[in-house]
Specification:
By secondary structure, the chain is α/β, with parallel strands linked by helices. Helices cover about 30% and strands about 25% of the residues. The longest helix is centred in the N-terminal third of the chain and has 16 residues, at about 40-55.
Length: about 375
């Protein structure tokens, strides 16, 4: 799933803005960077896309509420129009999933869909606004992933289907997005509990974590206790480790070991010495956070957005991290915002959209809409 073009009207600070994510041959670029000074609407553009894609897919992967404050003060409603493209495999996966679900619903054999989203819903029925597709039944293409998630809760399919169904995901400025269920056995291996603290079997015996260090540690523990039948394929921990070793060489992620305080910790190697998670640089920690979220959320064939890509990073790591993100998943489209000169200067001009060069998004020159394609 990829966005080729989008028009945003009346959303937050944006009056009327068009974005083109295609190259000179009409293909969607793997990575696009939206640049502008603060206050020019970069974050608003990503939130508008998230609102439209999240509504039609019925899947918001992070807490998000839409209210009247998201509508431009001169408009009665906010609107987003997108041209979204699907691969042939995504279309086939959606068709198979709806058939396996026993709904026998019609999923059109189309790879280009026009998506129209409006908030508030003119009919007042939908809290998140109303989304329509052209052709109309194409909304089922957007809901392939949520259908797979629902079916995987039983025994009808496994989670490998998620790699065939894309999703929209936004790394906000807090870089949140990973809330992981940790099995009881893995949690107790990491944090031995007293009988008084032990979870009750009557409720949910598992625990949840959002801290990337705890999540990484739990993935390592689960990898060590996998059944032999599951060890044919790489574990989530193995895939995170492979990504870290590739992107942070010569540094390597070794595995989970018992730390100095007799608890478990994740150990790394810099080519000479070993060190633990707390010894990582801020850039390495941010790369690990991206890798973990990609693995936990299974971000393949997806639209991955990063708001303010330079945040929490030394200038030397800003470009390195941004170029690493497309390598973390399969056939993803990456859209990032930034006001960093380091990132802008490192990107090919054809991959940069400067919405600041058109003046304030709130008031385009001459009262006309601002069209923003790649720089030439």
């Amino acid at each position: 799933m990829k966005i080729a073009r989008a028009r945003i009207q009346g959303f937050r600070y944006i009056k009327d803005l068009e974005l083109d994510f295609t190259d000179e041959l009409g293909n969607v670029r793997d990575i696009t960077v939206i640049v502008a000074p603060n206050g020019e609407g970069k974050t608003s553009a990503l939130l508008a896309l998230e609102s439209a894609l999240g509504t039609v897919s019925q899947l918001f992967l992070r807490p998000r509420r839409i209210g009247r404050g998201d509508v431009h003060h001169t408009r009665l409603s906010a609107r987003v129009d997108c041209e979204v493209r699907f691969s042939g495999d995504e279309v086939a996966a959606a068709q198979q999933l709806w058939e396996l679900a026993g709904k026998h619903a019609y999923v059109p054999q189309v790879e280009v869909v026009q998506l129209h989203w409006e908030y508030p819903d003119p009919a007042g029925k939908h809290e998140w606004g109303v989304a329509e597709c052209d052709p109309a039944p194409a909304w089922r293409l957007f809901q392939g992933r949520v259908t797979a998630l629902r079916m995987s809760q039983g025994t009808r399919i496994d989670l490998t289907w998620l790699h065939r169904c894309g999703v929209f995901f936004l790394f906000d400025q807090s870089r949140s997005g990973a809330r992981v269920r940790i099995p009881r056995e893995a949690w107790e291996a990491m944090f031995p509990l007293t009988d008084q603290d032990r979870p009750s079997d009557a409720g949910d015996p598992d625990r949840y974590a959002t801290d990337p260090g705890v999540i990484l540690k739990s993935l390592g523990v689960q990898a060590q206790f996998r059944p032999a039948s599951d060890q044919v394929e790489a574990s989530p921990f193995d895939r995170v480790r492979a990504g870290f070793d590739l992107l942070c060489a010569p540094h390597r992620l070794l595995g989970v070991v018992r730390g100095r305080d007799e608890g478990l910790d994740v150990q790394f190697f810099d080519g000479k010495n070993t060190y633990e998670y707390d010894g990582l640089s801020s850039g390495q920690q941010m790369l690990l956070r991206y890798l973990i979220v990609h693995e936990v959320q299974r971000l393949d064939r997806s639209i991955v957005c990063v708001d303010e890509a330079e945040l929490h990073l030394h200038p030397a790591w800003q470009v390195r991290t941004l170029f690493a993100i497309p390598k973390m998943g399969e056939d993803n489209q990456v859209i990032a915002t930034t006001d960093s000169e380091h990132i802008r200067d490192a990107m090919p001009s054809s991959h940069v959209i400067d919405i600041g060069q058109h003046g304030l998004v709130d008031e385009p020159a001459g009262g006309e809409k601002a069209w923003c394609g790649p720089l030439t």
